[in-house]
Amino acid sequence: MRTLTSESLNPAILKVEYAVRGELAIRAEKYRNDLKKPNHGLPFDRVISSNIGNPQQKGLDQPPLTFTRQIAALTEYPELLKTGRDLFPKDVVSRAEELLEEIGSIGAYTHSQGVPLIRRSVADFISKRDGHPSNPEHIFLTAGASAGVSLLLSMLISSPKSGILIPIPQYPLYTATLAQFSGAPVPYYLDESSGWSTSPPAVEAAIEKALKEGIEPKALVVINPGNPTGALLSEETQRALVQLCEKYSIALLADEVYQANLHAPHTHPFTSFKRVVRDLQSPIALFSFHSISKGVSGECGRRGGYFECTNVPDEIVKLIYKMVSVGLCPAVSGQIGVDSLVRPPKEGDESYPLWLKETRTIHDALAARTKTMAARLNALPGMSCVDSPGALYLFPKLVLPEGALKAAHEAGKTPDTFYALALLDRTGICVVPGDGFGQRDGESHYRLTCLCAGVDEYVGALENFHNDFMKKYGGV
Ligand SMILES: Cc1ncc(COP(=O)(O)O)c(C=O)c1O
Questions:
Q1: Does residue 60 have a pLDDT over 80?
Q2: How far is the CA of 251 from the centre of ligand 1 (A)?
Q3: Ligand 1 pocket check: which of 49, 50, 166, 171 to mutate, most ligand atoms within 8 Å of Cβ?
Q4: How many domains does the chain divide into?
Q5: Distance, CA 59 to ligand 1 centroid (Å)?
Q6: Closest by CA position to 163, among listed 178, 151, 152, 150
Q7: pLDDT at position 52, please?
Q8: Residue 135 belongs to domain with CATH number
Q9: Quick check: helix, strand or coil at residue 338?
C-alpha cells in the first residue's frame, strides 16, 4: 500500500498561502507556549498579537457587546427566558423570543440561505443604509464573509484563464482562494503616495493587460475600507469603478466588512457599492459582503456574515442556492449574530444606553490608537506610515539599509519577513510582513493591527527595536 503524500493531492492546494496565520504567527504561538515555562529565557513577557484583526482575541481588550451576548445567551439556553427573564432588558427578551419563535431550537438546521426573519432584518438594514430597496431573497447568510467570497470565486472561475482583479496590497483570502480554485489573479496597484487610493485608470490598464495576455476578466474585487491599507474610496472613484465593470462586463465583489470601522466618519464617510450601483442605475452584477467579525461587534469566532446579490440573474441566484444547500446552512449562532449586528437596540429601548456607551468606547479607542500609532511610526527613520481613516490596521513602509537587505538575503528571507521575525524575537510583537499582502517589487511593508491595548508600552518597544535594528544594519 502506498502512503498518502502531498503530491497525490490536488496540486492547487499546495499553492495556497495565507500569511496572516503564516510563519510569524506560528513562531508567535511557540513563544506563547514557551512563556508558560518558568525559565523561558525570552526577552519579553507577553506575545502581542498584532497580526490578525481578531478584536476579542485573548490578550486584547475589546469586550463583546452586552446586547449581542445577551441575545446569544437567551437563544442558546431558552430556559433562561423562564428562570432568569428579569435579569435581561425587555427589548433583549422580546428579541430572543421573536428569534426563537421563528427558528425553534438553534440546534436545528435552518433554511440553507439563512433564517428568513434574519434575512429580512438584513434587507431592512441595507435599505435604510442606502435609501434603495433590498430583497431578502437575494441575501445569503454565511459563515463569515470568507465563506461567501470563497463560494462566489469558486463559481466565477470557469478556467485557469478566468481573471479576478484584486487590489495590491490585498487581504490574502483573495490570493489564497484564487490559488485554490486555479483562477488568474489580475493585480491592480493601490497608490501609497496618495493615501493608498484606488486609481480607476490603473484598474482599466490592468484589465487591458489581462485581455492582451488572453485572460478573461470575470470580476473586480474592491475592499472598502481597505485591508491592509485602511483606505476609504471616494464616491467618485466608486462610480468610475462601477462604470469600468459595465464597460468590460465584469462582476463587482465589494468586500465591505469594515464599513462600520470609520475613524473620522464626518470627513471620511462610507458609501456602499450597492448605493452607487442603484444611484447610477447600473446593470452590473454586484456581490456585497458584510461580517460580524469586524466593526464593533468583533465576533470573529461566531462565524457570521452575509452577501447581497444585486442585478444577479435569477438562474445564478438559484445556482448559488444549490451550492449553499450542499453545506446545509450557516451556523445558527452566527446567523443570530448577524441579526444583532443589523438590528441593534434603538433609542428608547432598555438596552440602548449601554449599547451606545460600549460601541462609542470601542470606536474611540480604535480611532485614538490608529492616530497615535501612525504618528509615532511615521516619525521613525526608514519608516513612513499612511494614517488610515478606516478598518483596523496600519501598513507602514520600511526603507531598510543595505546591510539589512544583505542579511535578509543571507538568511533566505524577504526583507520584510526578516524584519518582522527580528521584531517578534526581540519584543514579542507579531506583525505580518508586507509580502503576504502583495506590494511593488523591491518594497517592504508590514501590517499591524490597532487593536492592542497599552499603545505607549507597545509602540515604545517597537520604536526601540526599530532604532536598534536600523543602527545595527547601518541605517542611521
Ligand atoms: C477584507 C476582509 N474580508 C473578509 C474577511 C473575512 O472575515 P470573516 O470571514 O471573519 O467574516 C476579513 C477578515 O479579516 C477581511 O479583512
A1: no
A2: 20
A3: 171
A4: 2
A5: 20
A6: 178
A7: 83
A8: 3.40.640.10
A9: helix
